[in-house]
Design a protein that fits this description.
Number of strands: 22
Radius of gyration: 30 Å
Oligomer: single chain
Strand order of the largest sheet: 7-14-13-9-10-11-12-8
Distance between the termini: 37 Å
Bound molecules: phosphoenolpyruvate, magnesium ion
Strand content: 15-25%
Structural class: alpha/beta
CATH topology of the largest domain: TIM Barrel
Number of helices: 28
Helix content: 40-55%
CATH architecture of the largest domain: Alpha-Beta Barrel
Largest sheet: 8 strands, mixed
Shape: globular
Length: 756
């Protein structure tokens, strides 16, 4: 059974569209379970009914025509109960509904299983037999497992199916996909798919007008691959046995196979560019091989895939065309990296969409700092089909619309205008200090990473930098930057903000922050080698960075602070301080006149919360990294969109921990700040101010909204709100309550309703 499950999933995954995927499912289930009937009904969201979509054993003419209400018949009963219904005699069940067009009256036994994806019922899978009997436990388990496995694939195929309608239908059909809010704002533009090289499954569909050129490119790539294989086989001929050498011959045969090349060229002639023509043909052949019973032949599918990948790589290497970024580019990819964001000229960049990740992923935080509307975790978006298509993204709600209608365009143009009016209205606050009406001062600083953040930050009246993410520069380099390269970059940053304070965080890699040249492969990256753990294991990296920071501050009339990420014990603080002292001593001994920087620790793991007092006695300041603290307190991976709803900054456990850290720092007479994203949410900022946080450091995008809230509501009201909040036991309750207080104070427009 395991083997059958594996093969069906694989075949369905490789199916070109939804209809073929469903055909494969009913066919394979009917054979594997040896039943007379297998059908799939899918939920049609637009008409809110169930459509008879695929079948073996009943009237084929009814496919696509018969529909049921959501609560109609036994199929509706499966939807209502959201669990399997296994009946010996369906005909005598009170819920049974006779549908003459289908012709199922002679079938008695019935097993219906819901197809559920992300809590939503996508449809129902049913098997039926003439004899009166209950399907046994192993049959039920098989269908339940298959349905769970296929739910994601069906969700994806359904989305893909919508977009692979004929051209005329495509243009008039607008499709909506759900993701998670990444960075606020709305963008209207054109999708540009970015895709990893040499991966057949991810090549975007593009059209070509220059058919001759595409054919020439394809033929050249095949010739190069042939040459490459011949030369490898010759080089290895004295080391390999005949069997292995035969494999090279087999490869060459596949390459010379007129069928494959003929099909590719045929598709190019129909107007597809060579890369997607090749990938489609190869994937179809792979699927055909994989559906074969014979194991030897199935394995030949892998040979065809390998070879196709080689030709694709060669095609991509010889294709010198640069990606064209239209006006209002919306960059769409499976997983975006900082270098992708930086590749698009800023005046052409309108938005980002990532299939993976959530609103708390680092890439979303960077996008927000750049002020670029972003949707994350758009798992059902068929990236390769949307390239070049008109698109709207709503970064507040996490929604993506392809081929928007006129009404949708008008609606979102209005949202953009309203947002512009809101931002303009806040401009007058930028040079004012952040003081409550009853005289309490809070410092509003910014988080930075890219040089492009600097102008935006100063423009919004940032009073300092509470977190400079030094790793962003490391992520965009090709090797570890040298001490001198780092010194130059850091100095530029310090000079740009002088005389304001700048808090430089030491290299914080690991988790979802990977360096292309220093891969860290781990089963649990967020619980693994991250932040200070990496740099203390590599003191040469740590020392070079600290030296670069201290030297960068030489002669600048500003206040540079060093901050340590991911600390979970005082031993790490002692060791890091010893190395920082060593750097400072060496630099002054070299004759440079520099100040010893303040050193601080980020509180981002629960262990550090409960040792906050021991830690603050060793350093000059604390800064809470709430992005990580929330993930570690609630055991919710900040990068996993599947659990994004559980990532709750207003969770009572988090709020009590935040309050505890303030009391520890102030108890020792030291300052503290917070530099996680929650500081940029006006409702959360109000609670943080009431708790006593001296510095709130945030994305510059949110700074003026936070200032508006904190200059409108008095500290004494904020303290009352906090007092009530600390008695509440649920995150939703707390968030609704605080948002309501802001609305009551006339701040409804700045209440942020981020959809996780
Ligand atoms: C945090 O964890 O809150 C933080 C500010 O650091 P980062 O988001 O870079 O992990
Ligand atoms: Mg962190």
């Amino acid at each position: 059974m395991l083997e059958v499950l594996r093969r069906v999933t694989q075949e369905v995954n490789a199916a070109p569209d939804l209809a073929s995927a469903l055909e494969i499912i009913v066919e394979r289930v009917q054979t594997a379970m040896n039943t007379q009937v297998c059908s799939v009904y899918l939920h049609d969201v637009e008409n809110n009914n169930l459509v008879f979509m695929a079948n073996r054993g009943l009237n084929p003419d009814a496919i696509g025509k018969v529909t049921l209400q959501l609560n109609e018949g036994l199929i509706g009963y499966v939807v209502e109960r959201a669990e399997p219904i296994n009946l010996e005699d369906a005909q005598s069940h009170p819920k049974n509904r006779y549908v003459p067009e289908i012709g199922e009256e002679e079938y008695h036994s019935f097993l219906g299983v819901p197809i559920i994806h992300s809590r939503k019922i996508l449809g129902v899978m049913v098997v039926q037999q003439k004899e009166r009997r209950r399907f046994d436990e192993s049959e039920e388990a098989f269908l339940v497992t298959l349905s769970a496995l296929l739910a994601g694939v069906i969700a994806n195929a359904r989305a893909t199916g919508l977009l692979s309608l004929p051209r005329s239908a495509r243009q008039s059909r607008s499709s909506t996909f759900k993701g998670k809010s990444g960075a606020p704002g709305v963008a209207i533009g054109t999708a540009v798919a970015i895709y990893p090289l040499a991966q057949l499954d991810n090549v975007p569909e593009r059209k070509t007008r220059n058919i001759e050129k595409e054919i020439a490119l394809y033929e050249q790539a095949v010739a190069l691959t042939r040459e490459e294989i011949r030369s490898i086989s010759q080089k290895l001929s004295d080391r390999l046995g005949q069997e292995e050498l035969d494999l090279f011959e087999a490869y060459l045969h596949i390459l010379d196979d007129a069928a494959i090349s003929g099909e590719v060229i045929e598709r190019i002639k129909l107007g597809q560019w060579a890369q997607s023509a090749l990938s489609k043909v190869i994937l179809e052949h792979v699927a055909m091989f994989q559906s074969m019973e014979d194991e030897y032949l199935r394995e030949r599918g892998s040979d065809v895939r390998d070879l196709g990948t080689r030709v694709l790589a060669s095609l991509q290497a010889s294709d010198s065309r640069k990606t064209r970024y239209p006006k209002a580019t919306i960059l769409v990819g499976e997983e975006l990296a900082p270098a992708d964001l930086a590749a698009v000229p800023r005046d052409r960049l309108a938005g980002f969409v990532s299939v993976k990740g959530s609103g708390n992923s680092h890439i979303a935080i960077l996008a927000e700092a750049m002020g670029v509307p972003t949707v994350m975790g758009a798992q059902e978006l068929p990236v390769k089909l949307v390239d070049g298509k008109p698109m709207i993204i709503d970064g507040f709600q996490g929604t993506i619309i392809t081929h928007p209608t006129n009404e949708q365009l008008v609606y979102y143009e209005n949202v953009i205008r309203e947002e512009e009016v809101l931002v303009e209205g806040l401009e007058e606050l930028k040079d004012q200090p952040c003081v409550t009406p009853d005289g309490h001062r809070t410092f509003l600083w910014v988080n930075t990473g890219l040089m492009t953040d600097v102008a935006r930050s100063l423009d919004r009246g940032a009073e300092g930098v509470g977190l400079y993410r030094t790793e962003v520069h490391f992520m965009m380099s090709e090797t570890f930057p040298t001490e001198e390269e780092q010194r130059i970059i850091y100095r530029e940053h310090l000079l740009a903000f002088a005389p304001r304070p700048v808090t430089m965080r030491t290299l914080d890699i690991g988790g979802d922050k990977a360096l292309p040249y220093f891969p860290i492969e781990e089963a649990n990256p967020f619980l693994g080698w991250r932040g200070i753990r990496v740099t203390l294991d590599h003191p040469e990296l740590f020392l070079a960075q600290i030296r670069a920071m201290i030297k960068a501050s030489c002669g600048i009339n500003s206040y540079m602070r060093i901050m340590l990420p991911m600390v979970s014990s005082v031993g790490e603080v002692d060791e890091a301080k010893r190395l920082i002292d060593q750097c400072y001593r060496e630099i002054t001994e070299e004759g440079m006149d520099v100040k010893m920087p303040d050193v601080g620790v980020m509180i981002e793991v629960p262990a550090a919360v409960y040792q906050a007092r021991d830690i603050i006695r060793r350093v000059d300041f604390l800064s809470v990294g709430s992005n990580d603290l929330v993930q570690y307190m609630l055991a919710v991976d900040r990068n996993n969109s599947r659990v994004a709803e559980l990532y709750q900054e207003f969770h009572p456990a988090v709020l009590h921990a935040l309050k505890y850290v303030v009391d520890c720092a102030h108890g020792e007479g030291k300052n503290l700040g917070i530099c996680g994203e929650m500081a940029g949410n006006p409702s959360a900022a109000l609670l943080l101010m009431a708790m006593g946080y001296d510095v709130l450091s945030m994305n510059s995008t949110n700074l003026l909204m936070v200032k508006k809230a904190l200059t409108t509501i008095t500290l004494s009201s904020a303290k009352k709100i906090l007092k009530n909040v600390l008695k509440m036991d649920s995150a939703d309750l707390i968030k609704d309550y605080v948002d309501e207080q802001l609305r009551a104070a006339g701040l409804g427009q700045i209440v942020r309703t981020r959809q996780y």
